[in-house]
Design brief:
The protein has one domain: TIM Barrel, CATH 3.20.20.70. Helices cover 44% and strands 16% of the residues. It has eleven helices and eight strands. An eight-stranded parallel β-barrel has the order 1-2-3-4-5-6-7-8, surrounded by seven helices. It is globular and about 45 Å long. Bound molecules: 1,3-dihydroxyacetonephosphate.
Length: 252
């Protein structure tokens, strides 16, 4: 059975005090919840990872970073390496988020390097991809998604996918209140599994958790998660509120 995952991407929100407080609340809220085959991950900003990870240690909550550089060290002002992230207590990293691609110029080529570095460091990757509105309108979303996966991931071997979580996030649904319909999510998730089967094999494709992200809320989570190929969600706005995040976890 594929692992279900609810991951909260806090983006550039929550200072240290808020991060500690929200972490504490999330840990408490799921303490008595039987998380059958489900992982709960939160991704604070770099500067708060260490304190959040300390609070989360030994609990049901895991901690991820939101980005990472592909080099080990060097003259890369403002960047953070895999080793640095691991040293403060996180072994999971979100890569390829559309905000990184859109505002910080991340390319498939850079992402391929980042993925390699993360895997070489035995980190798990939550790999994000998805089309923008014009691409969806032009019915190009399948092509776009395929090329994003191909360019950044398809140099990997099948066994590497044990440490990859996919997150389909249509850019037009992020922070807009507009969600892909459960059918749209299912359609593309099934397509992703098909191209993984074609490139690798069915067992590999069937074992990978594919999350949906984009305006997931307590009100729509259950329906989206009910789809066969949707294995959970990458949550932005609703992950900043402990009740909403808990309700989304309960919906899985
Ligand atoms: P929203 O849930 O705020 O739309 O954000 C989704 C997202 O970008 C998660 O990475």
């Amino acid at each position: 059975m594929r692992t279900k995952i609810v991951a909260g991407n806090w983006k550039m929100n929550n200072d240290l005090k808020e991060s500690k407080s929200l972490t504490k609340k999330i840990i408490k809220s799921i303490k008595k919840t039987a998380l059958k085959n489900t992982r709960v991950i939160i991704a604070p900003t770099f500067v708060n990872i260490e304190r959040v990870a300390k609070k989360a240690k030994g609990t049901k909550v895991e901690v991820a970073a939101q980005n990472m550089h592909f080099e080990k060290s060097g003259a890369f002002t403002g960047e953070v390496s895999a080793e640095m992230i691991k040293a403060v207590g996180s072994k999971i990293v979100i890569l390829g988020h559309s905000e990184r691609r859109q505002y910080f110029g991340e390319t498939d080529e850079m992402l391929a390097k980042k993925v390699n570095t993360a895997l070489a460091n035995k980190m798990e990757v939550i790999f994000c991809f998805g089309e923008v509105l014009d691409e969806r309108k032009a019915n190009n979303h399948f092509k776009v998604v395929e090329s994003q996966l191909k360019n950044a991931l398809f140099h990997l071997e099948a066994k590497d996918f044990k440490n990859i979580i996919l997150a389909y996030e249509p850019v037009w649904a992020i922070g807009t209140g507009e969600t892909a319909s459960p059918e749209q999510a299912q359609e593309i998730h099934a397509f992703i599994r098909k191209i993984l089967t074609d490139k690798y094999d069915e067992a590999t494709a069937e074992s990978i958790s594919i999350l949906y992200g984009g305006s997931v809320k307590p009100a729509n989570a259950k329906e989206i998660f009910s789809k066969q190929d949707v294995d959970g969600g990458l949550i932005g706005g609703a992950a900043l509120n402990k009740d909403d995040f808990k309700a989304i976890i309960d919906a899985i």
